[in-house]
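Working notes for the structural subgroup meeting. M.R. asked for a predicted model of this chain before we commit to crystallization trials. I am recording the input and output together here so anyone reviewing the notebook later can reproduce the run.

Input as submitted:
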Amino acid sequence: MAGLLWSGAQAMVLVPPVTVVPGMEAPARRSVPTGTWVPVGSGEALSLLRVPRACGSSCALVVVSHPRGQSAAHLRDSASVAVLTAALIHAGFAVLLSGDGGPTSWGSPAGLAGLGEVHARATELFGWSGRTYALGLSMGGLMALRSALPGAPYPVEGVALIDGWVDLRVAWGSALSRREEIMSAYGLSDPPEDLNPAWLARTWGRRPLLVFGSPDDRTVPFARNGEALWLEAADPDVGGLVRLTGGHLGGNRFTADVARQVVVFFRVLEGRR
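Returned structure, recorded in token form:
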């Protein structure tokens, strides 16, 4: 996919969950090594957590949801995505590269439930501040947005989107291959509107959003996804709508300037506590 580069692989050791037996005192919070990606979860929920050395006793978590056909490992090995994650880590945010329930989960309820379990496990492993933010790339926009709406397994304070799908119905009608993947992910022949993150966002009120996209994008129609979402569901006092040029997930999405804007957005939300 344009703009995303990856190579090689790294050995991974799964981090088991911390088990709390009813009636017993909860164990002390476990810590993970800083400065390295640590696997959390397994199978299609396999995700990768990195905690900054600057985290100290407490830091917020940014969950990054991947494009179609990819995985947490793809994001880890992408030189382009590393521009964004490195900026977040340098700014003191822990980063969770989400497996999202598989390469073609399309923000499904099963994928969201799996992410909820991974989030619960990951936040036991470092000094989590209790605050979570989401960053969605392409297909990952559906998962990122859905995680910030009522009924999600954990609260999300703000969402950043880069060329993100957010309207499931538009994705459904855009190509037969996408329709087949959505049918498989949702276990339904035609997912109803109340499973559509864009419809839910419009229904449930305005949220902090930072949206990047381009009218030149021929993969994800910007006017019917990120742009429409911003106009209909964004909190106008924070974040913004950033119109870029060029095709889907092009190199200008993964620059120091874009990374800076994402970091500033999450920092502003941190300051709103």
